[in-house]
Amino acid sequence: MIRFSPLLLLSLILGSSTSWADNGELIISGWGGAYEQAQTVSYFQPFENEHDVRIKIRPYNGGIGPLDFLEHPGDPGWDVLDMTESDALAACNERLLKEFDKSVLISAPDGTAATKDFFDGSIFKCGVAHVSYADVIAYDDRAFPNVKPNSVADFFDIDRFPGKRALPRRPIAILEWAMLSYNVPVSQIYDLLSTERGFKLVSKRLNQLKGNIVWWEQGHEPVDLLSEGEVAMASGFNGRFDDARVNHDIPITIIPDGQFVQLSVWGIHRQARRPDLAAQFIAFATKTERMAALSNILSYGPTRKSA
User: Fold this and answer.
1) Cα angle: 275, vertex 61, 175; to 5 degrees
2) Which residues, 6+ apart, have CB-to-CB distance to 13 below 8 Å?
3) Burial class of residue 159 (count of CB atoms within 10 Å of its CB; 0-12, 13-18, 19+)
4) Which residues are CB-contacts of 193 (< 8 A; sequence separation ≥ 6)?
5) Quick one: what percent of the chain has pLDDT higher than 70?
6) d(CA 78, CA 270)
7) Rg of the chain's alpha carbons, rounded to an integer?
């Protein structure tokens, strides 16, 4: 169901004498940190130079609630959104995103049609996936000088591996990790989660962490919490942890077990002020060479075979 706010209805009736975004500006959601920095070099700056337009980054930390909030009359918040797959699908179902015209996607350098060059499942009704990443568990090397944690089960084992755990306020991967810690086969996880028994198993695992959870909301926080010694283990995005370890010499190790792979999806807000330019940006950012450029900077996988 489409929900209209009073401010939106007023702007539709009376019109708006000013636009929050000027004619030469495209507003794109940003996640901050190393990811946004890589996007700036790979996507934003090259697009600005090629199209003589200014890109403005407005922070976004996930969820679909912010998409339906108008800070100013006629202000959609964002023209282009970079969303998790689950959020993009939910936003599409709520008609918060425009339907995506896949014909704008650009062919691979060898002439292969874009629709054949993207991996299966990358093109959606309301957007297109541009990178794959993983929600992972990492730990502070200094917290465990002897025996090191190496499994999802160790994340929940406060006795063997003491210290606080950093978790997102949104249930990203934690439910799946709870199931994996009981050695539930991946193919059975969601069936079990839909049952009362699954709920009890998850509750039991989370209760083991009671009093030892530090909640985070923004993607850079898990790295900050680990580097400052405020937590011993944290869930977060693989690219952030890799960047911290490789480029900033922060003593962080990623646990290989239980890496939860997800897709990041470009979508266009239903009330984008410049939908045509937004589509041009998505076409540009999903070109083979642009995807390859980002993957060379950050350890996120492209969604095109040619990249």
Assistant:
1) 120
2) none
3) exposed
4) 175, 179, 199, 202
5) 90
6) 10
7) 21
Two domains, one topology: 6-131+263-302 and 133-262: yes
The bridge status of strand 165-168 relative to strand 213-216 is: parallel
CATH superfamily name and code, 133-262: Periplasmic binding protein-like II (3.40.190.10)
DSSP state of 169: S
Q: Which residue has the higher pLDDT, 69 or 77?
A: 77
pLDDT digits (tens, 9 = 90+) for 219-258: 899 999 999 999 999 999 999 999 999 999 999 999 999 9
Of all residues in the chain, what percent carry a pLDDT higher than 90?
83
In the chain, where are the structural domains located? 6-131+263-302, 133-262
- Average pLDDT taken over every residue of the chain: 90
pLDDT at site 75: 64
- The answer, yes or no, to whether residue 77 has pLDDT greater than 80, is yes
Q: What is the DSSP string of 263-276?
A: EEEEEEBTT-S-HH
Tell me the pLDDT band of 110, cut-offs 50, 70 and 90: very high
State how beta strands 127-140 and 233-237 pair: antiparallel
Architecture label for domain 6-131+263-302: 3-Layer(aba) Sandwich (3.40)
